[in-house]
User: Fold this.
Amino acid sequence: MDKSNLKPGHLRRIKSLALLNDAQLTAFLNCVDVVTCGFSETLFREGQPGDSMFMILEGQMRVYAKKKGGEVLFLRMLEAGDAFGEVALLNQAPRSASVEAVRESVLLKLSSASLGKLVSEQPGSAAPFLYYIAKTVGRQLGEMTTKLRARMEQPDMLAFLQ
Assistant:
């Protein structure tokens, strides 16, 4: 898909952009690049430098990490409308997981530099997007904290051997 063919309505498919009006979506569209991923193509690998996030217009992406022994740990499946890479966008951190296309996918890429430009030139367009990202990252952090707490509170199944 060519960027020149994208209209504000296409961007409404993405959850983080759904509440923006046409003018805000047009401003946002000027700050993103279109990236295509073929079937089974790896977009990036865990540990690689990151400074951007991606939003799925079409397709499906698989997120996974590798354990120390090399075993692959499936984290989640992402569909059209979903986004990923928010942490890298906000703090230029190394990628915490790998992402590959499960089927041919069309993504929008927003870099940190482009987000900075959007914030300075179109704060009204950036604010609702950043609010959504903050809520998403906060929810994910809460879910991870709950899982970690549950894991820490599990009895040590091997304690009786000591």
About this structure: DSSP finds five helices and six strands in the chain. The first helix runs from residue 8 to 11.
